[in-house]
Write a structure and sequence with these properties.
The chain has four helices and twelve strands, in the order E-E-E-E-E-H-E-E-E-H-E-E-E-H-E-H.
């Protein structure tokens, strides 16, 4: 499980295609780096497993299966791409964001972006498909590329998000622009409630 609070921005160093997926080497620096082989790590909101480490644990390797590539924007990563990273939460961690499983539900893309209030507010409008909108509510939580965010409004098939400069600075949101494809994980609790209330 994760919290949606991004710890570091990683840089893709190598991409290797295989018969069933892709192998990525990613460079990053974690505060008090305790990364080890077998750890779960959120890469743009997708839960991946560390399979190898090098350079004093500041570079790690992951394998993304064909299904992960199909469902997420990891398929679009190339050398020098930047990704949001979060290590799995500890039971003692403050839950500053919300409960995030790292199981991406689908993808959305930015259709509009602007900066307001003297650069203090970054607004993004994302277009989502009907299935993702089903679990989205105004002022509810949503995970975008691994970032825990709050939905400001929903109009038609678009959600509006407002990001503060701190979020822009500490995540790959600084690179978002119209057309950018982002990983979406909807609220876990909403999905459980639907299952419990519809299955009798």
């Amino acid at each position: 499980m994760f919290t949606g609070i991004i710890e570091s921005i990683g840089k893709v160093l190598e991409v290797e295609s295989t018969d069933g997926g892709k192998i990525f080497w990613i460079e990053t620096e974690f505060f008090e780096n305790d990364l080890k082989i077998g750890d779960s790590i959120s890469v743009n909101g997708a839960c991946q497993t560390v399979t190898e480490l090098r350079n004093n644990r500041n570079e790690f390797k992951i394998y993304s299966s064909y299904k992960t590539l199909e469902l997420t924007n990891l398929s679009e990563l190339t050398k020098d791409s930047f990704v949001n990273l979060e290590r799995a939460m500890l039971m003692s961690t403050r839950l500053s964001g919300h409960l995030v499983s790292g199981h991406v539900d689908g993808k959305g893309h930015i259709v509009k972006s602007d900066i307001a209030d003297g650069g203090k507010v970054f607004r993004f409008h994302l277009e989502l498909d009907k299935q993702l909108l089903r679990y989205s509510i105004e002022r509810g939580s949503i995970t975008i590329d691994g970032i825990s965010l709050t939905i400001v409004s929903i109009v038609g098939n678009q959600i509006e998000l407002v990001l503060i400069p701190e979020t822009i600075e500490k995540t790959n949101a600084r690179y978002w622009k119209n057309g950018t494809v982002l990983n979406i994980e909807t609220d876990l609790i909403a999905k459980y409630i639907e299952k419990l209330t519809t299955e009798r």
